[in-house]
Design a protein that fits this description.
Elements: E1 25-28, H1 37-44, E2 49-54, H2 59-75, E3 79-87, H3 91-98, H4 104-110, H5 117-130, E4 134-139, H6 142-151, H7 172-181, H8 191-220, E5 226-232, H9 242-249, E6 255-262, H10 267-272, E7 278-282
Parallel strand pairs: 2-5, 2-6, 3-4, 3-5, 6-7
Antiparallel strand pairs: 1-7
Helix pairs in contact: 1-2, 2-5, 3-4, 6-8, 8-9
């Protein structure tokens, strides 16, 4: 795979991996063949939406995201970056920062960035800023999602920054969520976990709605942009989560999913049970305690210290 630096070194601070020194593979999940970033960008250049599902703290995976974003932009100059990591109520300050109307210091003070923003997400935002690309703050505000996890979805009905509608049906996504959040087993009608699932679905519906609204607005302007959405891989694996909710809103969309797997890859098993169109096999990162704001748990209130949900490594 060709290694290049699309941005100045200063912007890449914190992404200490390089193509030359760090092994990774990009694989077609139908054939198992290896793909370069350019191969992937060329294949995806005819689409409407590309989901880049990540393991939130994987340095190599984040470097690959930037490389693919740049390659996609070369093929599709009208590109919108959409991010799970920013919430709808900070869209105005995000837009102001992209336009150069506020300083980065002011932007970071008011946008509630995740703890790993500087090392993992800043390069994406800076690339968008340098190239006049729109960035969607796609996610539901954490206080609203937390309210759903405590009181149920009725508690935030009609809230401005939440999806206009959300459902939490049974099915594969529910089962996958249940397995992760309840590894010790439990009754399927457990009310607490059902509320957690409803909060998860509100995240997916809000991100899907943000993308759908952004596309619909662009189409009204006679544009056909490519949206690249960055999210935890659980939100996009198997075409579930945000992907499924987006298809519900705009069934005609052409969508591809990139997923990520760290550690030893079992290729045959991955092909037999594909979680996306392309799989990035990346080295496992050393486990470390992540800061509270790096994908903070739903249950964490500043005033409270309840038991947090299980660690999910880039999942819910």
């Amino acid at each position: 795979m060709t290694c290049f630096s699309p941005l100045p070194c200063a912007v890449l601070t914190g992404l200490f991996v390089s193509c030359a020194s760090t092994p990774f593979r990009s694989l077609d999940m139908v054939t198992g063949e290896e793909l370069t970033v350019e191969d992937t960008a060329l294949r995806f250049s005819i689409l409407d939406v590309v989901f880049m599902g990540e393991e939130h703290d994987n340095d190599v995976g984040h470097a690959m995201q930037l490389e693919l974003l740049v390659a996609l932009h070369e093929h599709r100059p009208d590109l919108i970056l959409s991010m799970e990591m920013f919430e709808r109520d900070v869209q105005d300050v995000l837009d102001a920062y992209l336009a150069g109307a506020v300083s980065e210091e002011k932007f970071l003070e008011t946008s509630r960035p995740w703890g790993n923003y500087g090392s993992h997400y800043r390069p994406l935002v800076e690339y968008a800023r340098d190239n006049d690309l729109a960035v969607l703050a796609a996610n539901i505000p954490r206080p609203l999602a937390r309210e759903v996890s405590k009181e149920g979805p009725e508690a935030i009905a009609g809230e401005e920054f939440a999806a206009r509608f959300s459902t939490a049906p049974a099915g594969l996504y529910h089962d996958l969520f249940w397995d992760i959040m309840n590894p010790s087993g439990g009754e399927p009608d457990d009310e607490l976990l059902q509320r957690f699932f409803a909060a998860q679905c509100y995240k997916d519906d809000t991100m899907a709605e943000s993308i759908a609204d952004g596309l619909s607005q662009a189409w009204g302007q006679r544009r056909r942009p490519l949206v690249v959405h960055v999210c935890g891989k659980f939100h996009s694996d198997y075409g579930e989560g945000t992907v499924s909710r987006l298809r519900d809103r705009l069934p005609e969309l052409r969508i591809a999913v990139v997923t990520m797997e760290s550690g030893d890859l079992q290729l045959d098993a991955a092909i037999q049970d594909p979680r996306g169109d392309v799989l990035w096999s990346v080295p496992a990162m050393e486990k470390k305690t992540r800061s509270e704001e790096s994908h903070p748990p739903l249950t964490k209130d500043p005033e409270e210290d309840p038991e947090e949900e299980p660690e999910t490594d880039g999942r819910p």
